Amino acid sequence: MKHIAKIMAFFMAVTAVWISLLQTAMISQSHTWLLPLYFIVSLGCYGLLMVGVGLMQFPTCPQEAVLLQQDVIEAKQFLKHNGVDVGTD
Fold first, then answer.
1. Collapsing DSSP states into helix, strand and coil, what is residue 32?
2. How far is residue 33's CA from residue 31's CA, in Å, rounded to a whole number?
3. Residue range 48-70: average pLDDT?
4. Domain of life here (predicted)?
5. Per-residue pLDDT at 50
6. Angle, vertex CA 51, rays to CA 47 and CA 57, nearest 5
7. Handedness of CA 71, 77, 81, 84 (dihedral sign)
8. 38 pLDDT more than 80
9. Which of 1, 8, 60, 89 gives a 20 to 30 Å CA spacing to 77?
10. Is the pLDDT of residue 28 over 80?
11. Confidence at 89, pLDDT banded by 50, 70, 90
């Protein structure tokens, strides 16, 4: 619940800044109306960046790969024993 409160506080702060920019003449009004769109696009770019960084830093686990292959072989043998066709691999 605390995380939602932080998100709502941030959203309210961004909304307050946007409304104040709409009421003042600091930035032209044609640009101010596009700020929410820029914000959404920048959040999407940030999300893609975080996914990319996570994929680049994803650890490889060769021991776990061997264990997984052994589990697959064991599962195929069990299914063949019970009469299920699991392919020719």
1. helix
2. 5
3. 90
4. Eukaryota
5. 93
6. 145
7. positive
8. yes
9. 60
10. no
11. low
CA dist 53 and 43 (Å) reads: 15
Q: Over the range 14-33, which residues count as b (16 or more CB within 10 Å of their CB) and which as e?
A: eeeeeeebeeeeeeeeeebe
Q: Inform me whether the pLDDT recorded for 19 exceeds 90.
A: no
Average pLDDT over residues 31-55: 88
Which of the four pLDDT bands, split at 50, 70 and 90, describes residue 25? confident
The number of beta carbons lying within 10 Å of the beta carbon of residue 71 is 10
- Which residues contact residue 29 at a Cβ distance below 8 angstroms, ignoring those fewer than 6 apart? 22
Tokens of 85: 């066709």
What DSSP string runs through 35-88?
HHHHHHHHHHHHHHHHHHHHHHTPPP-HHHHHHHHHHHHHHHHHHHHTT-----
